[in-house]
């Protein structure tokens, strides 16, 4: 599989292990890096770059004296996302007339702790980056970014929640709503995106990272989303995490355990969530309805 095709289909940013598991060869990665078709965002994280290429952002930094910010900074930190980042820099509030073609220029006075250097470039620190994204991106996009930052231990969930409740002014309420939707236990971009799709359409799972147990009490698996009262489970079925024999056996065990215990199980892929969201919602609504009907006492 071509690295550019994979990154294009998966939001523009991905970890090396995810790409290799999906069929991208090491030699294809090496060639794509050598000819500049993809870039190394951070350590083993690769990206397509910002709109027009990372070169646009680098030039904007030089031209404006600004700091790379928003989702452009997220890409450089290696934070995963479900969309292709744009080019963003932030300059001081006194730089009212600063602009650069192809780049969004924001104005804010950044403190020393809010700026760091990545690959020699000035970039907003991870916490500030997530907060900036929350002001400009769609809630579902921000939750994917925030969950990834927490998962990679670039930001602690406690610090993120504290910062969200300290922010005042434009976008403060929006930021708090986004943080309320984050899940420190989220295991992948797909899981975050699926959770937000359900939340935004009134299907918020009452439990996440739910522990499935056998009748004996033995732990079987930890599932993504569960409605325990209705005995319904929904899983984000990422292809990269289900290629090995061990993962295959885990899926079969989980599926059988759910059936034997009277649970209903739905699994949704990346393509389902991002290309066919109506199918995901329709299926979830249907299984919840069937489960509710099955638990209703006779005659009601």
Name its key features.
300 residues; alpha+beta; Endonuclease, Chain A; 13 helices; 12 strands; Restrct_endonuc-II-like; DUF559; Type IV toxin-antitoxin system AbiEi family antitoxin domain-containing protein
- What's the story with the biggest beta sheet? 4 strands, mixed
Measured between the Cα atoms of the first and last residue, the distance is 54 Å
Rg over CA atoms, rounded to whole Å, is 21 Å
Structural class: alpha+beta
Shape: globular
Spans with pLDDT under 50 lasting ≥5 residues? none
Mean pLDDT value:
84
| Element pattern in H and E | HEHHEEHEHEEEEHHHHHEEEHEHH
Helices, by number, come to 13
Helix content: 40-55%
Protein name: Type IV toxin-antitoxin system AbiEi family antitoxin domain-containing protein
Pfam families: DUF559
Organism: Actinoallomurus vinaceus
InterPro entries: DUF559 (IPR007569), Restrct_endonuc-II-like (IPR011335)
Structure characterization notes:
- InterPro entries: DUF559, Restrct_endonuc-II-like.
- Residues 222-288 form the DUF559 domain.
- This is Type IV toxin-antitoxin system AbiEi family antitoxin domain-containing protein.
- With 300 residues, this protein is of the alpha+beta class.
- The protein has three domains: 1-48; 49-181, no CATH class; 204-295, Endonuclease, Chain A (3-Layer(aba) Sandwich), CATH 3.40.960.
- It has 13 helices and twelve strands.
- The strands form four sheets. It has a four-stranded mixed sheet with strand order 9-10-11-12. Strands 1-3-2 form a three-stranded antiparallel sheet. The chain has a three-stranded mixed sheet with strand order 4-5-6.
- Strand 7 and strand 8 (121-124) form a beta hairpin.
- Helix 6 (126-136) runs antiparallel to helix 7 and helix 7 (139-151) crosses helix 9 (172-181).
- It is globular.
């Amino acid at each position: 599989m071509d690295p550019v095709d994979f990154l294009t289909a998966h939001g523009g940013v991905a970890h090396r292990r995810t790409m290799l598991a999906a069929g991208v060869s090491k030699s294809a990665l090496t060639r794509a890096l050598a000819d500049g078709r993809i870039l190394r965002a951070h350590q083993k994280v690769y990206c397509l770059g910002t709109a027009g290429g990372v070169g646009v952002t680098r030039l904007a930094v030089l031209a404006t004296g600004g700091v790379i910010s928003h989702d452009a900074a997220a890409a450089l930190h290696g934070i995963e996302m479900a969309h292709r980042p744009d080019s963003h820099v932030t300059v001081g509030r006194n730089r009212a007339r600063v602009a650069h073609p192809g780049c969004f220029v924001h104005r804010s006075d950044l403190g020393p702790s809010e700026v760091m250097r990545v690959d020699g470039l000035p970039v907003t620190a991870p916490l500030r980056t997530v907060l900036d994204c929350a002001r400009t991106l769609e809630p579902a996009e921000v939750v994917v970014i925030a969950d990834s930052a927490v998962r990679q231990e670039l930001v602690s969930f406690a610090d993120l929640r504290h910062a969200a409740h300290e922010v005042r002014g434009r976008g403060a309420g929006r930021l708090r709503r986004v943080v309320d939707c984050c899940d420190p236990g989220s295991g992948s971009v797909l899981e975050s995106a699926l959770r937000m799709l359900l939340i935004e359409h009134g299907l918020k799972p009452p439990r996440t990272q739910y522990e499935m147990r056998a009748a004996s009490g033995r732990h079987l698996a930890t599932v993504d989303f569960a409605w325990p009262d209705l005995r319904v489970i929904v899983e984000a079925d990422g292809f990269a995490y289900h290629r090995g024999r061990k993962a295959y056996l885990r899926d079969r065990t989980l599926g059988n355990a759910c059936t034997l215990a009277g649970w209903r199980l739905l699994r949704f892929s990346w393509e389902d969530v991002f290309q066919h969201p109506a199918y995901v919602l329709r299926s979830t609504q249907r299984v919840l309805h069937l489960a509710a009907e099955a638990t209703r006492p006779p005659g009601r």
